[in-house]
Amino acid sequence: MPLLSRLFKALKPAAPAPPPRIAGVFSPAHPAAGWWSDDPAEQLRNYRSWVYAAVNAIAQEAARHKPFLYRNTGQAEHEQSPLPHTHPLARLLDRPNPWLTPWELWYLTTVYLELTGNAFWYVAPQSVGDARLGTPGEIWVIPTPWVRVLPDRAQYVKGYQVAAPGAPAETFSADEIVHLKYPNPLDPHYGLSPLQANALTVDANTELLRSRYQTFLAGQRPGVVLQTEQTLTDQTVSRLEEKVAAKFGGRDNWHRPLVLEQGLKASPWTLTPAEMDFLNSAKMTRDEILAVFRVPPPITGVVENMGLGADIWFGARVMFCEGTIQPKLDLSGQVLTRDLARRYGPDVAVSFPDCSPRNQDQRRKDDELDARLGLRTFNEIRRSRGLEPFADPRFDKPILPPDLDAAGRKVDD
Asked: Which of 94, 145, 254, 264 could form a disulfide with 221 if both were Cys (CB 3.0 to 4.6 A apart)?
């Protein structure tokens, strides 16, 4: 069976499963916190609230950066020759498959890495008629929960088993799958995601959101205690409670005035220090989630000091690109060099240019200085930026300062 057909078969949606009837009776009412940290499907379901804000920011930024494809013939920048846009690898990454854009490819890959620690690409071989060629033809992102790594003592990884819900499992060889993962000190075959490392805080944030929702949904406004010196019967107390709940319960009635009956006094219901700390802990859990994903709050739209203006945004961008995005891009480039680019030649490599806005400004100044002092030629600078060199051979020679000759010696006036 052709490999692409096998993938389509594995990706076929499953029929909806009947709801459980008996198992739910014996399951605990409140599962332990972080119980989902080893379940990839449940990890994806936590893609919400501040986890979504952090992961979406990382994935969008990573998807913006185009990989640099080159032949590595040495350690210097000018010895890295960019591949032409007509190269098969460049065309493959520019058009992964007929239904997936490059932006979507990198976005989904990053989302799976951040939530599950693993991302799997099925590299379908290029085919001409019934004949299959050795080079890849398409790239498909496989949902992480569907994939199981098959370890092997001799080959390290024997293959990958893909089991879509409701479909029989299909086994793919190690060469058919590109496995990107974050290093995991507990398991060499599966990655460890920031979400797994932050499972308890994520659960705490979820419970805080649920509590706040229930407060707005069922809580009455205003929050007061009714006092009287009279002795009230149970019937009278019930009548007052029902009347207050009916008039002031729910989020639409919080602003209504409270008119008291004769002899009743109202005093505000103040929060205890423990309750105030409970409310303030929402900000704490937000900061912990963003810290584990290494996303500065301004990147997610949270700006608490507007007085600094653009300096906050620039500083957050520098921290975000240098400390969060660039290490992930470097890891992806090295994995793709080993598992994908080497199929096109032993010297073909994939990397990502430095994404920091601070380094980009400094690089432009360095290029200008190198050109003015004759340290690099114009074409060497253009090649380092992935641009086509000028055809004029004069741009392959350094432009020396007027007081130096071709040998670098100072010229006497």
From this structure: 254
